[in-house]
Amino acid sequence: MEVQEQAVTNSRLTLLLEKFRRVRIQSVNLCKPLKSEDYVVQPIVDVSPPKWHLAHTTWFFEALVLETYNPDYKVFNSDYGYMFNSYYESVGERVLRPNRGFMTRPTIEDVMDYRRYINEQLEEFILTLNDDETRILDVLEIGLNHEQQHQELLLTDIKYILGHNPLFPVYSTELNATGNLSDTSNFLPVDEGLYEIGHQSNQFCYDNELGVHKVYLHNFEIMDRLVTNGEYLEFVEAGGYQDFQWWYSEAWDWVNQNEIKAPHYWHKVEGDWHSYTLQGFHKLNSSEPVTHISQYEADAFARWKGLRLPTEFEWEIACKLHSPEIANSSNFVEDKNFNPKIQPANNYQFYGDCWEWTNSAYLPYPYFKTDEGALGEYNGKFMINQMVLRGGSCATPRDHIRPTYRNFFNPHLRWQFTGIRLARHT
Amino acid sequence: MEVQEQAVTNSRLTLLLEKFRRVRIQSVNLCKPLKSEDYVVQPIVDVSPPKWHLAHTTWFFEALVLETYNPDYKVFNSDYGYMFNSYYESVGERVLRPNRGFMTRPTIEDVMDYRRYINEQLEEFILTLNDDETRILDVLEIGLNHEQQHQELLLTDIKYILGHNPLFPVYSTELNATGNLSDTSNFLPVDEGLYEIGHQSNQFCYDNELGVHKVYLHNFEIMDRLVTNGEYLEFVEAGGYQDFQWWYSEAWDWVNQNEIKAPHYWHKVEGDWHSYTLQGFHKLNSSEPVTHISQYEADAFARWKGLRLPTEFEWEIACKLHSPEIANSSNFVEDKNFNPKIQPANNYQFYGDCWEWTNSAYLPYPYFKTDEGALGEYNGKFMINQMVLRGGSCATPRDHIRPTYRNFFNPHLRWQFTGIRLARHT
Amino acid sequence: MEVQEQAVTNSRLTLLLEKFRRVRIQSVNLCKPLKSEDYVVQPIVDVSPPKWHLAHTTWFFEALVLETYNPDYKVFNSDYGYMFNSYYESVGERVLRPNRGFMTRPTIEDVMDYRRYINEQLEEFILTLNDDETRILDVLEIGLNHEQQHQELLLTDIKYILGHNPLFPVYSTELNATGNLSDTSNFLPVDEGLYEIGHQSNQFCYDNELGVHKVYLHNFEIMDRLVTNGEYLEFVEAGGYQDFQWWYSEAWDWVNQNEIKAPHYWHKVEGDWHSYTLQGFHKLNSSEPVTHISQYEADAFARWKGLRLPTEFEWEIACKLHSPEIANSSNFVEDKNFNPKIQPANNYQFYGDCWEWTNSAYLPYPYFKTDEGALGEYNGKFMINQMVLRGGSCATPRDHIRPTYRNFFNPHLRWQFTGIRLARHT
Amino acid sequence: MEVQEQAVTNSRLTLLLEKFRRVRIQSVNLCKPLKSEDYVVQPIVDVSPPKWHLAHTTWFFEALVLETYNPDYKVFNSDYGYMFNSYYESVGERVLRPNRGFMTRPTIEDVMDYRRYINEQLEEFILTLNDDETRILDVLEIGLNHEQQHQELLLTDIKYILGHNPLFPVYSTELNATGNLSDTSNFLPVDEGLYEIGHQSNQFCYDNELGVHKVYLHNFEIMDRLVTNGEYLEFVEAGGYQDFQWWYSEAWDWVNQNEIKAPHYWHKVEGDWHSYTLQGFHKLNSSEPVTHISQYEADAFARWKGLRLPTEFEWEIACKLHSPEIANSSNFVEDKNFNPKIQPANNYQFYGDCWEWTNSAYLPYPYFKTDEGALGEYNGKFMINQMVLRGGSCATPRDHIRPTYRNFFNPHLRWQFTGIRLARHT
């Protein structure tokens, strides 16, 4: 990861301290609707216990800031190091493999104590710093972005835990505000030519966005909104999941081995399609964007429509051209819908609502370099067999997204708020 | 299961009501040291969440007594039926497979409400009955024995959950009272001859103890106490786990595939053997009975000693001859040691402390008949590929055990309080 | 294994030499219908390649006789030791795990050369011996019985390989001679009492038959023939495989996970049941004994009939009482039916046709002792989680079976010629 | 797949007929050193039995040419359709899943009869055609390219089968001709700029090479030969396989789970590295190109060297610029080395020797379209989670390769002749 120099009127320290307080409290707030029991479990390997997210993001500040840069720092609990280090490997014969989902201790109360202790220690430590200590401030900034990423996972993991409980518990009772759906989608054109890809401002970005470089795009156009539940339902009802011709060979195996018949969280009850959202179990809203689909499904749907997914480069240029700024109507975690929503026609939905699967593999940009040390493990080591997603979702913090942001997951995964935007050459 | 007629001075109803109150409160008491988080998880398939035990034993009374015999009964929550029925199979498209260890809801508070409701309903219902309604009283009695069995599992499952946590939480701070170990064990002789096996009194027993029948035993003798940690440690240190000649072929595969090197809960820390007990993480006490071993290990140890495990028939006859009554010093769950202990020489340890592996496969006795309906599933369907254990353990309720009681587990399992008594022909 | 002293008019050496020639040529004869390709594969872990059987039985004589007792012996090929030793564990870094079913070399021609070489060497060596060298003669005798056991496996493994080929190749065109089926089966009674179990003559037997001991049997009776395809078909058609009540809990899982719907080698084609036999693919003959069933299925069928499987002790005593001698009409491998057949009413089928599943676990007899050294591994180490079968089959050599012979397999296995005889208490 | 129009002096039919004879006989010739037993087995899922390759390539002509276009054609054996169709899914209840590696029948003799029959039928049929019947000629041409691809697999699968046999059989005794290795490798430069990617001539190519399009390349340079065993050995000896920092996260799991410590076919015997080649088991030749490595290993090695793998676009442009023609010294299957070799300095090794892993995911080019019908399944459905390889290998037919040819495999696979060429930005 690398951090560009900032031109700020306020001191960088002041801004970081403000963001630190805001981000740290937000993690706790997202857990307010949970019961103690909800914090513990790991139903699938991709989903971590909420308690683990709260502790792991805290451990990041403890290990990479306090233990590294504050010689006076006293460790809260020496066992927490290996329990909450996501990269942990066995360190000695006494230590049991801390299987995340079975660690009932420390309790959530203990973890909250841990958070409070680290918050106090860190604030105290920050007040001893000044703007020249760039490396420490960089690590702090990464820690905050790291915690924001975990907030998104926290929410999708909570959804998984509650959404696979036969009681279908309600997480939020706030109504999911939806706009009016423009009946038909239109296509936004982009002209053939040489474009620049990658992060260029002096704001924070991850190392995988750097290596600004030229990419040649051929004429194409791209949908001006996300694909809806109603549109996707046509594919389901047309037998899309039963016809091998729409699927990659390995996707077809996945469909059959897992008996996939619809997006995750969809259930057919007495002939009607329902879905579980964080507002509970409801009839499917056909105007809302389809979500919780794999890249396999996004690609199969595109083929069935005679279209295709955009590349990440097409997506980035279309976004920069047609939607350079984030609109107020865009739908992020702070808006508390916790679900993608219908947007006004001029919103275009490049930001928020759903992460958009591209047909680009997650690979290094030309001139890509990883950071030194532990922080260098952040992105580069995942650059194989994953596909790029763009644009953020309804679970992303509003100040965490930008046109150059590259998210990535294995193509079969569905527990994130993932959706579809289609493209075609012209 | 079958219930013999009782000759009681008190009404059977009165006794059942008393036992009902005692057994029901005991399940809750065993959970007192737990935190909410501890109630939820299922770290291995054999271990059920404590919450599930509390709810399942309650559901048993709801479904098999109240719903069956009380036409006025109103179900507490219709979803609980499939969530807490251990024999549940899918019932319709909306229902998700209720993976026990990931069901964070209902919370433990909800489950306690469920218990209270069923307790009240059941007490009310019992008061409408009389001693003639034999079938209902039989089912009630089975329900209480069923809950006592689950109390043992509850404790061993709690031990598994806490004992695999890197913090090694303490469940009980009461000291584990231990007597003086007689230095050498002696052998108790039994003469060759024809003996009767099976339950004969009019007290409660399970269906698998019935079918009183004759068995011819050849001369043998049997140890007058359980094998100790110290004795077992000699096997460990002599390389017993590295020498194939002591092991069944499939046991040898099990040792190697699972890298088994010592009993469960044993850990070598800086050269010294420790073990986790419900009192926490301590140095191994070499005088206490070895526990948490598989039948494979019990058998391998016996072969290494040039001895063998007794058959269940030898065990039953030796017990009836040499230890017909349960001594006060015997160690059951009510004694709150939660660990096998050293017994005075005249105790013989046939009851309590550790379930004793025999070399008998769990098979039906001659004339065995299963009960009608759902209760018939209780025992008979497990009579393949399991080995018999006898005598109860430190986690067994004192009034739950008898010389004819047949417990059974797959030979590789270790999470119960299992131990070793050796025998030989003479 | 242990060998009892013989009272022979001929020298033991002469008899062994005669048997040696007869047994060794029989292994080769059983392979005559095979093509080179058939010798190589191992479609499931239980089935070994025919080539491996031919080489492994040869290696047994090479390693345990020639290399052990003949100081002048020159090894045929030093690589064959670990390739054809069934107990092989890794011996050095160069050596690859010789996955039996993928070893295309040595070719079958090479293996035949190996057999010829060992035969010559062994005959030469035998001629240097005399009847006093008991240990060598004992090992030779075990080697011959070992090869006879492998002849049975050879035939069932060949059946598996050919019977899972879509072309259903024919192994033998000889007609499967069948007698007339007595319409109804009768029950043979056995009186309550104390009986002796185990091998008592001075003929060869395995160590697991020794430990002659007393067993008390309660009154019972046992069917006078095997269950037929027609009788078993009634169970299939009555939905026996769809009703959990007939099955052990683990058997029910096995039925569902493997989608078991009928005995192995049964196929329903256009509404009619067919089966593959070594004579090819034919309509099911409803009068012939049902075969290729697991102990699970045998037990489920018995329960459905309101009867039960006999114990191995009941079987042995009933056989000794009602069928002490092997009839000429009995059906063994030398009769070249390669399939169980209908027997005349007075044959009773205790010998040949099908191995009969009992409801006894394979456990040591009282006073059981294993042989010293490698031969001690023969039987004792399998005495867990297996069930006893009695009586031999149509793939057993006629001189290899006796009333005390104990065969054993895991209860789910079906590729042997296994069948059902029912019993009941009276 | 798509076939471009040809400008030929000879009739296209005549050329195809000549190629048909040449390609068909070559498949049989490659199998000459095999024994019947070698044709049968499938040791891992990626390796098919040689017999299957011979039959499947034949079935391709039978099903897609003769059965489709010749109304008079009589099928050779109706069972062969589902036995040798690589896309087979179950067709009715009688049919068993034809597990490729356990199908001992048809024998290799039967398969050779099948090949002869189809060859005769096809030659006869071709003689009835003329150059206007473009679609049939296109399918024929695809069939021949299809068989050439299977010839490469045939050879690598034979190597796998023989190379995992403890006897390490020799396939060819011809000496592996090697040139002199230039001590140091140099880098070939390519200037920044816009380049055209994709197949442009009127010769045959696959559909995945079409969609000629512009790609912008930044300044880079690329090695003028393949990485050698000696260079790779330095990585091995420096502990490259024990240091997580060189590996993708999923590659590190792969290394550890599979205990990977060196390239496939490397063995350390008494301190010295050896490798198995089709000439047998020999000391490692440090000057020859390293082969049988995964993309994971190629990437890890590149990182350890401070360099990187080229993209497929960089590779294609460098090849077209620096090595537009295939040299006589290049090493293909017809040269019978069956192993990559040392090349003269001016050869550059872009063609033959080893398939070169790129760091490009296998994705569609802009404007990519799949062919109609069954032939459309050829390439497009594999465009996920695979990496591109370029340049052909010592197992590729000389007339089968071109600069635009895109091969693809999952990044963990090693049984092909795969190697490394490094690149860097300048």
Describe the fold and architecture:
The structure is a homotetramer of 426-residue chains. Chain A folds into two domains: 2-163, Four Helix Bundle (Hemerythrin (Met), subunit A) (Up-down Bundle); 187-425, paralog of FGE (formylglycine-generating enzyme). The radius of gyration of chain A is 22 Å and the shape is globular. Chain A has nine helices and 14 strands. In chain A, 49% of the residues are buried. Chain A has a four-stranded mixed beta sheet with strand order 12-11-10-13. With 426 residues, the first copy, chain A, is an alpha+beta fold. Helix content of chain A is 31%, strand content 13%. In chain A, α1 packs parallel to α5 (134-163) and α2 (50-69) runs antiparallel to α5. Chains in contact: A-B, A-D, B-C, C-D. Chain A binds chain B through residues 35-41, 43, 51, 79, 82-83, 93-96, 98-99, 101-108, 161-162, 164-167, 169, 267-269, and chain B through 35-41, 43, 51, 79, 82-83, 93-96, 98-99, 101-108, 161-162, 164-167, 169, 267-269.
